[in-house]
Amino acid sequence: MEAVGLISEKGYSIAEASRNLGIDYSVLRRWKNQLANDPQNAFPGKGRLKAADQELRQLQRELERVTEERDILKKALAYFAEDQK
């Protein structure tokens, strides 16, 4: 990321780079921290998520689907239990 490069490689302060680029200070600071903490996955880009975030989203969707299936089965069980009376 070029904006973070100004800070890390060119020696600009975050405030200085923020003013020059018109990027909010907090955003630029967050980008710098993301790059420092996880250089390989800091900016996956183009709407892609980090592998862990993608897995979490997939598991949440799966949980939602399984919960819906369970609820349908509960309703069906209740329906057929009433029908037997």
Verbal overview:
The chain folds into 2 domains: 1-43, no CATH class; 47-85. The model has no long low-confidence stretch (mean pLDDT 83). The protein has helices at residues 2-8, 14-21, 25-37, 51-83. With 85 residues, it is mainly alpha-helical.
Features:
85 residues; mainly alpha; 4 helices
Coarse structural class: mainly alpha
Low-confidence stretches: none
Q: Into which percent range does the helicity of residues fall?
A: over 70%
What is the molecular shape?
rod-shaped
Number of helices: 4
Lay out the secondary structure:
Layout: H1 2-8, H2 14-21, H3 25-37, H4 51-83
Helix pairs in contact: 1-2, 1-3
Write a short abstract of this structure.
With 85 residues, the protein is mainly alpha-helical.
